[in-house]
Amino acid sequence: MYHQIANSPVFKGLAPDVIETLLKSVTYRIKKVNEQQVIAQRDDECTSLILIVQGSVRGEMLDYSGKILKVEDIYAPRPIAAAFLFGQNNRYPVDVICNEETTLLIIPKDSVLKLFQQSESFLKNYLNAISNRAQFLSQRIWFLSFKTIKEKLAQYILNLANNDTSRVIFPLTQKELAEYFGVTRPSLARALGELVKEQIIEAKGKEILIINRKLLIQLLD
Fold first, then answer.
1. Cβ-based neighbour number of residue 152 at 10 Å
2. Class in CATH terms, 2-144
């Protein structure tokens, strides 16, 4: 287990034997959860640092119309909601659900505070981890501010292209991408088809070729 979590952002740079010594000095537990099991619900109080040792979970939100919006998938050995362990409103912002059989390392808040005192590296790693999450969420909110699916697709493709290539590969399936956008799969397919029809892109499976970058950028104006 210690070799697995040595790759976690919060234990970065710490040897497995050092991690073992640190954890043995505090209270923690290992929990195995089944596929589709709910780990936490939105607005539940966040009382422990939860680290995925093996497996993956997803964060998702349910809007008032009943539509599910996937925020992201979280894979081992990343922590879950580390930024929400402290603060006045330390509650989960989304539902957290297992994608598969998953093993979790659960460290209560008091133990996390002890680890901060015992290891400067752990403290720095934790601060970096929550800063990175804040930046990710800011980008996510900005991305979701685009009103149409075509706008979202344009921004997503341009981000992947990174201004120096015209050919990109979608890392997500169309179903996963629809969940990421918070839209239905048919709506996403229709918007993608419109971009192809307008000769802005060519699409073959997950492979996208930008034909007219200028028009793609204009969709964001």
1. 23
2. mainly beta
pLDDT by residue for the chain (221 residues), tens digit each?
889 999 999 999 999 999 999 999 999 999 999 999 999 999 999 999 999 999 999 998 876 667 777 778 899 999 999 999 998 889 998 999 999 999 999 999 999 999 999 999 999 999 999 998 788 777 777 767 777 899 889 988 988 887 678 899 999 888 888 888 878 889 999 999 999 999 999 999 899 999 999 999 898 87
Yes or no: is domain 149-218 CATH 1.10.10.10? yes
Q: Which residues contact 218 (CB under 8 A, 6 or more apart)?
A: none
Structure tokens at 64: 């008032």
